[in-house]
Design a protein that fits this description.
158 residues, 6 strands, 6 helices, alpha+beta, three-stranded antiparallel sheet
Length: 158
């Protein structure tokens, strides 16, 4: 993925010992999917459309139609959209004692909209950088995972 984020929970010895129980592992993986979705959703949500998305555009000649690409006042059209919003995906990767949630997009222009190479005009129009979204959702992810972990621990001790 050209732009991705990984959520990883470490130091959960009681849970990792019990993860040989398939049901418990599946519960933690399901929880991680939910945590990844908390981060994916704001990345996949477009900011409100601006003058750059309507005729005649900010330059008086062309505009960007979301889900299509560039259109011009002369009727030319350039279908360049890779559907950034729909392209954001989540996955859960389990390796040994580690269960990680991965959020990413393969859209070629993703780094220029959401990433480290974000163009100033995208920032000015409300597009958030991935790391900003991570910071903004960090507490919500932590609370969600704490609930999942408490639920798994109650299954272990109950």
């Amino acid at each position: 993925m050209s732009d991705s984020i990984t959520i990883q929970v470490e130091g959960l010895d009681e849970i990792t010992k019990a993860l040989s129980d398939v049901r418990l592992r599946q519960a933690v993986e399901t929880g991680m999917r939910g945590a990844a979705e908390i981060v994916r959703e704001p990345l996949a949500t477009y900011p409100p459309a601006s003058a750059a998305n309507r005729s005649p555009g900010v330059n008086g000649y062309s505009w960007y139609e979301r889900g299509f690409g560039t259109r011009t006042v002369t009727g030319r059209a350039y279908p360049t959209s890779q559907a950034l919003g729909r392209s954001w995906t989540t996955d859960v990767v389990t390796r040994g004692k580690t269960i990680a949630g991965v959020i990413g997009t393969t859209v070629s222009y993703g780094p220029f909209v959401h990433g480290e190479k974000q163009a100033g005009f995208h920032r000015a129009r409300g597009w958030k950088r991935t790391q900003q979204v991570v910071r903004e959702t960090e507490r919500k992810v932590a609370v969600f995972l704490e609930r999942v972990i408490a639920n798994v621990l109650s299954r272990l001790t109950g």
